[in-house]
Amino acid sequence: xxHRFIGIxxxxxxxxxxxxxxxxxxxxxxxxxxxxxxxxxxxxPSDTEALALKESRSGWLALKDGAPAAGFDTVxxxxxxxxxxxxxxxxxxxxxxxxxxxxxVASAPLVLCASFVVxxxxxxxxxxDGSGPVTFVVTGDDGQAAEDLACAEYIGQHVAGRDAEAAxxxxxxxxxxxxxxxxDGVRRGYQGVHPDDxxxxxxxxxFSFAMVARQEDSLTVLRLVASPNESVETR
Length: 235
Known about the structure:
alpha/beta; ten-stranded mixed sheet
């Protein structure tokens, strides 16, 4: 099975199966939001649209990359999201890479969003679905982000039935520019960054669910799905 690993700018067609990877931090944050009880995550194309969606629906929350901003309830940080009670809530998420990549392939028949924390569950879902070769959308740095490519390749190895060890892939992610930037943000006291963010992004298989994005009433909605033959564990 020949998988493709491409960046957002290289998307020239609609893939049959897409796995959109953003390790640091969009789809680690999304997984943590589900673990804290979120019902669904709506992926927004812009900050303005994220706020408009929040304001038009009672009880919805919105989060974004960067520092806290007016109208947004929280930021794109797993270290901060893990402290929230999101039971039954809808979260609107807008980030600079992950949500952009997911929206770019939103019309594909099957779209999963992934990071290391749901890598195993994502691979099991793909193996059971049997939909054929996967296009891995490596969202960071125009497809060159070391952490996203490492995670995509790790999932791809497991989909292919190979028993890949996680350590080499995690090392690539831990020594990536994205990890260094987050660590630098902590040192400089930037808002929107938590000291535990990098470590939380490197927890392989922290959760037993995969995350599937589908079109619902003109919105791109991310929901958790149980891996085959497993119950969903979120905490």
